[in-house]
Amino acid sequence: MFAFGYALVPLYDLVCEITGYNGRNSATTTVADVSSFEPDVSRTVKVEFVTSVGTDLPWKFWTTSNSIQLYPGEMTTVQFYATNKATETRIGQAIPGVSPTLASKYFRKTECFCFNEQPFEAGQTREMPVTFLVDPALPDDVDTITLSYTFFKAPDKG
Amino acid sequence: MSHAEAHDHHHGPEPGFMRWLKTTNHKDLGALYLMFSLAMFIVGGLMSLVIRAELFTPGMQFVDPQFFNSMTTMHALFMIFGGVMPAFTGLSNYLIPIQLGAPDMALPRINNMGFWILPIAFGMLLSTLFMDGGAPAGGWTLYPPLSMQTGDAMPFLVFSIHLMGISSITGAINVIVTILNLRAPGMDLMKMPLFCWTWLITAFLLIAVMPVLAGAVTMLLTDKYFGTTFFAAAGGGDPVMFQHIFWFFGHPEVYIMILPAFGVVSQIIPTFARKTLFGYSSMVYATAAIAFLSFIVWAHHMFTVGMPVAAELFFMFATMLISVPTGVKVFNWVATMWRGSMTFETPMLFSLGFVILFTIGGFSGLMLAMTPVDFQYHDSYFVVAHFHYVLVPGAVFSLFAAVYYWLPKWTGTMYNEKLGKLHFWLSTIFINVLFFPQHFLGLAGMPRRIPDYSLQFAEFNFMSSVGAFAFFITQFIFLYNLITTCRGKWEKATDQVWEGAKGVEWEMLPSPLPYHTFEQQPDLSDYEPHPTH
Amino acid sequence: MSSAFMSRAGALMSKLAIAASLGMVSQAATAEYALNMPVGVTEISREVYDLHMLVFYVCCVIGAVVFGAMIYSIIAHRKSKGAKAANFHHSTVVEIVWTAIPFVILMALALPAAKTLVKMENTRGAEMSIKVTGYQWKWQYEYIDEDVSFYSTLSQDSNFARQKNSGVDLESVDNYLLDVDNPLVVPTDTKIRLLLTAADVIHAWWVPDFAVKKDAIPGYINETWMQIDEPGTYRGQCAELCGRDHGFMPVVVIAKTPEEYQAWLAAQKGAESALNGAAIATEQNVALAQ
Q1: Which of B24, B95, B314, B499 is the most buried (most CB within 10 A)?
Q2: Which residues of C touch A100 (CB under 8 A)?
Q3: How many other C-beta atoms lie within 10 A of the C-beta of residue C68?
Q4: Distance between CA atoms of residues B140 and B71, nearest Å
Q5: DSSP character for B183?
């Protein structure tokens, strides 16, 4: 049963992957193939962007577009910015989150700073694009999706 | 424990401390477990008095908020793992062999080890109070990331939980092996007293979930010191996953603390109603059903973390279902009393108190199961009131009942009935003064685990603190009665002790129990504890 | 100390007298807030209150039946009255009946609860979103689409008074421990979506009057919603243990009519752009140019 305790970890990940629960799965954390999607112009979805920084990282992190309306299947790029306010290099890791969590399965990203750790030199500010589309298979009863990023200190670095 | 001296010198105990250190005798170990748990109840009780003293009036008077958090955390750990669980293990040691006609527990050396681990574990845990960064203060639930902020106490906390887990598992294995292999001929499973049944099921729960807790706290340890990120969002981990794993342990743990209590009460009520337990087999099945359900309801402890509606509905329905087998038990107890011939000695009083007050805790449990309303109750004092009602007038009252009930059998001396009754009535009054107002506090919006509160909560906190101190002082009556009885101050007990008592220990063994029982295997083929048709 | 003790005891007695004289908890609630859950000011909070009272009454009825039977038995079937023990020990019919009846009662409770739950989790059609971030030990509110954001911490008066042995008369502090420097201001009659997250440990945002309690978890975004019917000031607290000052990070929400809210919002934006806007813009331009 001790091993079972540990086995619960991959089991939990599997449940999250299948249900989208916790808003973090391969759809939000890996590069997607988007060649097969066509925009569905019959409806629009509001996508909100929110940014947070963990207290263990002296960064500023923001986006210029708080929210956009888009068609499901339509490719979009949104710019995010971060500044390292520390006096030495820091490495951050952005953690994506999606609300409602079940919508996370319908995100398709081709570019995101959250795929990798982001090293920032002292005082450096950088623009970081996220390119994505929302799968047209998104259920009709979802009208607003929030995409959240939180920058934490990358584990054991920075 | 002077009874042992009169017995066979070849098999008698060694004199002095070495007797206790090296003993493999189930009665010695049962006594050790019970004395240890009494000590832990006192330590945990003192911690709760620190809490109630600070909450006596609004404003911060005595302690730092961080120390207050340590007190709530340590109070829970001591009471759960040091008080209630070892007390029931002690009862299982003392009672299961004599109830089944077995000479001892099946694995006596492991039994000894299982006990002596406990003082080490709790010594380690208590020492964290003096460490850099203080004792653990993240709540007994140890939710990360907060528990990651624990100072030097962290590894001590984790290792002490490992030791408690090992101790519980040795106790559980012993119970299972003893019950399955050492029953005297003729003692069929469905003839066993309910205490044995509830403990058998509890033992399986313990083996199933204690290692899961050990795994979860090991993950906390490696997260903090060895760079793993099971629960750290920054490394792709998930703090909510800890809560799922913890409560997968935590909910069965709740039943680990209450099922043996059901067993105790199910034996005491028939004795004093002078009537067979109503619905013996449905009691066994209800216990098994509760144990099964306890594995599929864990997420009701964490509705507010945000779950898909389908999951919330599932956990709500599953949780509400538990009240069906629990209700069956309560109805059976009442039906046992119905048209009985009742007397009200102290064990019966505590059992009746248990039935009523535990049921009140069950009602608030049903309220908490309703997910939409749980959003209001969750992490408020309503929850504090709920689980203290099931644990104090629940589990702890059943322990009092058990001690009063079996103490004359163990020691050969009848405790003082007047003091016993006084202890019951004062305990019952003050326990309600202590915990009932906490329902109101929670409903009015007071969160749990806060060291200070706004003025609207002042009156009920005041009342609750008065109850707490009065309840604690009342326990000295029990302590006095216990010690004097062990020393043989009162009347000698008869072999049957209670007029209506049925069972191997009452009908076949003398009071006090000899140091070794059943050196000759008894034949129980003709023994009919209750009608089976 | 002793006079404080007496006055506390006196207040307690009068509160209990109210409760006793009104008899029922629900009625007492109208006279004395501190005895029962608030009815609240949202459709959801009222439904939650009704569910709470429903399950409470169901428990009372079951309790009356079970405890009634038990107490009758204790009085009538005692040995000292010459009661002789009967001999029955099981009855399959009775046992099936008292397994089935609770099951039916549970269904009757679960169905309305499920309906309310589905409503609570439905964040569709929200007219505005506010991001709530928990810190050790304060809240940050960000109005999405409005560029308004601020921190909300325990008010100075309370913070001073709550220091150990501060000597401050707590009665003289406004809303002791339930007051903040910058309350969250929201419009009434508007479906507001709350997005919760945290920057360090888990917190929980709770306002009893809205029946809203949701965990704010670092790295996660959680959502819930509220639609407030009546303007007013509503108070709550952090509900998830979050460390040393967990008890000292209250939530205060001021609900204004939509018109007053718009005026407040405009004032906020004006103040912010006047004070910080220029500075922030310069900082960002300089930074980007590097």
Answers
A1: B95
A2: 123, 223
A3: 11
A4: 10
A5: P
